[in-house]
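Q: Structure tokens for this one, please.
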Amino acid sequence: MLAVLTTLIFLGCLALIFAGKLHRTITAVSGAVVMVGLGLAFGFYGEEAAIAAIDFQTIGLLLGMMVLVSLLEPTGFFTYLAIRVGRWARGDPVRLLVLLGTVTTILSLFLDNVTTVVLIAPVTVLICELLDVSPAPFLMAEALLSDTGGVGTLVGDPPNVLIGSAAGLSFQAFLTHALPVVAVVWLLAVVLLLYLFRAELAQRPADGQVIQKLDLSKALDDPIVARRVLVVLGVIVGLFFVHHLIHLSPAFIALAGAAVALVWVRPDVSKTLAQIEWSVLIFFMALFVMVGGLEAAGVFDWVAGLLTGAGRFHPVWLGLVTIWLVALLSAIIDNVPITIALIPVLQGMAENGVNVTPLWWALVFGAGFGGNGTIIGSTANIVAVSLSERTRAPITAALWSRRGLPVMVMACAVTSLLYVLFFAWFQR
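A: Here is the predicted structure, written as tokens:
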């Protein structure tokens, strides 16, 4: 009975998030309150257990990286970078898409893909308006390639942060297991996007040299602060590589780096804190609380018991099913709640003797690449679509289905092939 009630609460919240009737943070917090209230009423879940269910390693890592981004954004560094890329493109739409997509992907390896799109997309719209070309192909390419590139590192995508914390996967493990797959998928995704948008990219701008006339020196408002934050960010990334050797968690490294940057830069703290995506952090914490309620009610023990029987099948097939099932669910709902819900299931399977190491990587790939399938598949997609609605060529659900869904299918198909070929590597 309790398992059914808690499952209905969780599924109801996911349905409301999918429908978009309420802001997802409001929905998640409301669901968390109902879950704790139900737990108190029936004695299976309380306030202390709810707080203990929150993965503060994940929250700390996200918060630390958000502080660094909030310090770097006002310096104009991202505007400077986008204009520089626009100059390299020399007015060629094909070259512009490849360059903007590449820069977005590289940033997504070290920053959250949502933050990357939030910073790069507005400048992209400006460049497209100057060139008098439709921004839709470029915004979609940035969202899709940021989702794709973010799969390659521990900090590149919210699901990776969640999975890395739960499974104990290091930053280096993502570089050796996920990044090679991402490199292949990313290259094919760029080629596919160029083909899918071939008609739009064939339209040449009236004045291809207009970006060359922009004063690049005025784009970077505070080069000193930008340099300091980039130095700190570089040190943090370097420590991510060896965090398992020095016995420091990625969350501690990110928060310590944020503290050093705050002391070194000494910004207006109120402005810096105002730029942090607190709603995202609260959303994650509320989801953790709801999932904790499901676990306390025995839902995951039941599901894990069912899936343990599937462990008798060949693990390769189990991994392939996980990739595609998670990808489809992530496209329909959102990859973050799907990931949070499935983590305890895999942990329960491990407790029952199933080797879930390859399944963790299947979850990484399914959640990351599945987010490309629909507008609501990932938050980065929603950001790109929201910005496009202010332009003359808004991105519609139909357009995303024709362009984004093929990218998702291609990514999952290629990943499935690589997963089978190198399955022994994913078992390590």
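A few notes: The radius of gyration is 22 Å. The chain is about 75% helix and 0% strand.
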